[in-house]
Automatic annotation (TrEMBL):
Keywords: Isomerase, Pyruvate. It holds the Pfam family GST_N. This is Maleylpyruvate isomerase. Residues 1-81 form the GST N-terminal domain. It comes from the Bacteria. The lineage of its organism: Bacteria, Pseudomonadati, Pseudomonadota, Gammaproteobacteria, Oceanospirillales.
């Protein structure tokens, strides 16, 4: 397996958590999105959508889109499941995962923030306001769902699931952007718990070979 990723990219971090939880080794390839390497000719051959992560499987298949990669890993390495068999329990986990992957991440992705700033001329302060607004909207929904259906030290119970794989990187990014998350105590409790778990620690940005503080 080869993973093309960036240490601070939350979509990459999702996949790294799943790989670590499932105990799957991979070769690291850093793609620095701060200097637009994701838009290089070489990277576009791997991912026409100009993003990270990209997973290249042992038989040479190139996979893009973190949620598709997570599904591939779930089906290929079922020994440590991140989704339960129970249909309703699985849907509950996917609800939280998709608030983050489908509602929150896309509007705050680097290319969106860059477009707002460089093409539409918003200020740095307005950019941060935009970012924090969508973080608050998304985490308000996640907090409500965890309050209704969550239990245990992870989002759902005492084992990590796909919801945790998506939640932890999004919290890490929000904290990096200076968001005040005190209105989301359940989200923060899960984040604090996961920070202590070896698989989550191995997947963290500061453990990646190309990490820059
Ligand atoms: N929906 C895609 C998004 C991939 C993506 O855009 N990743 C971000 C990093 S978190 C990226 O490469 N951004 C570069 C850019 O926006 O130009 C996925 O889940 O894999």
């Amino acid at each position: 397996m080869q993973l093309y990723h960036f240490f601070n990219s939350s979509t990459s971090y999702r996949v790294r958590i799943a790989l670590a939880l499932k105990g799957v080794d991979y070769q690291h390839h850093g793609v620095n999105i701060r200097i637009d390497e994701q838009a290089s000719e070489e990277h576009i051959k791997l991912n026409p959508a100009k993003g990270v992560p990209v997973l290249v499987t042992d038989d040479g298949q190139t996979l893009t889109q973190s949620m598709a990669i997570l599904d591939y890993l779930e089906c290929s390495y079922p020994e440590t499941p991140l989704l339960p068999d129970n249909t309703l329990a699985k849907a509950r986990i996917l609800e939280v995962a998709h608030i983050i992957a489908s509602d929150m991440h896309p509007v705050n992705n680097l290319r969106i923030l860059s477009y707002l700033k460089n093409e539409l001329g918003i200020s740095e302060e307005q950019k941060v306001t935009w970012y924090q607004h969508w973080i608050n909207e998304g985490f308000t929904s996640v907090e409500a769902l965890l309050t209704r259906h969550g239990h245990g030290s992870y989002c759902f119970g005492d084992k990590a699931t796909l919801a945790d794989c998506c939640l932890i990187p999004q919290v890490a990014n929000a904290l990096r952007f200076g968001c005040n998350l005190s209105a989301f105590p359940k989200v923060l409790a899960v984040y604090d718990h996961c920070q202590l778990q070896p698989a989550f620690q191995r997947a963290a940005p500061n453990q990646q070979p190309d990490f820059i503080a």
